[in-house]
Amino acid sequence: MSTLFSARDVTVKFGGLVAVDALSFDISEGTITGLIGPNGSGKTTFFNAVTGLCRLAGGSISIGGQDISGLLSREVYGKGITRTFQRSRLCLSLSVFDNVMIGRQNGLPFGLLDNLVRRRRFRKELVGHHHRVAGLLNTFSESLAQRIFEPLHSLNMIDRRRIEVCRALIAEPKLLLLDEPSAGMTPDETQEFMDDILKVRANNPRMSIIIIEHEMELMQRVAEHCIVLNHGRKVSEGTFDDVVSDPWVQEAYLGEA
Ligand SMILES: Nc1ncnc2c1ncn2[C@@H]1O[C@H](COP(=O)(O)OP(=O)(O)OP(=O)(O)O)[C@@H](O)[C@H]1O
Ligand SMILES: [Mg+2]
Q1: In angstroms, rounded to a whole number, what is the distance separating the alpha carbons of residues 102 and 91?
Q2: Is the model's pTM score more than 0.90?
Q3: Using CB atoms within 10 A as the burial measure, which of 82, 88, 95, 208 is most buried?
Q4: Ligand 1 atom 24: the closest Cα is on which residue?
């Protein structure tokens, strides 16, 4: 399997605090990697560093062999990396369709003029986008696809999370970053959401995913490769079974001897 993404000695500092400390790892095409670590261990900061939301104090990041260190968020998006956020960024009063379409950061290829004088072209484009968004929603369930024009506030927690994933998928990324997608879900919802991730993967076999998750059962089920952080440093890496049998992880993270 070819390497899609590489982090080399990635370092992020906030004043005197080293939030990500010389972190290096590779991601192969079409794989799911789990990023594990206690609160404050630098997981979200790493995603922010990849997506141009915070500056690197050192190191480099590349995708498809191209260096993307220091690029702006929209440039990183253009290189095929999209993400969800730990704290939801959905617009509750907008429709499901609009919330997903926000993920097309390039906007719509038509404007007011097209709407007024090029109505056929406008309509064709819109129908195309409708099909695409409905197709993404259908990955999760037919009933969700039927709610495409309903306001987001009418959806429950798990469906809202699915919409966030669709928003990240509409750009057809090469690498999808998921920041604690199951946070706040009930155990049953978490189970359902695991299946969702596996469906997303089945529909996009070449796309790679990095998932941050505290829910170890979910990690065990979906992640082929795991990386464990503590105080911004990589303390363990390998399969789920490798990392959970690591004495450091057992003692410090799982709280077991
Ligand atoms: N913008 C910021 N300014 C200053 N310090 C920050 C900033 N963002 C994060 N930090 C600090 O960096 C460290 C890593 O935080 P980060 O949010 O990346 O952790 P995390 O592993 O995602 O934790 P959690 O599991 O709670 O989401 C923490 O000590 C945090 O307080
Ligand atoms: Mg976080």
Answers
A1: 10
A2: yes
A3: 208
A4: 39
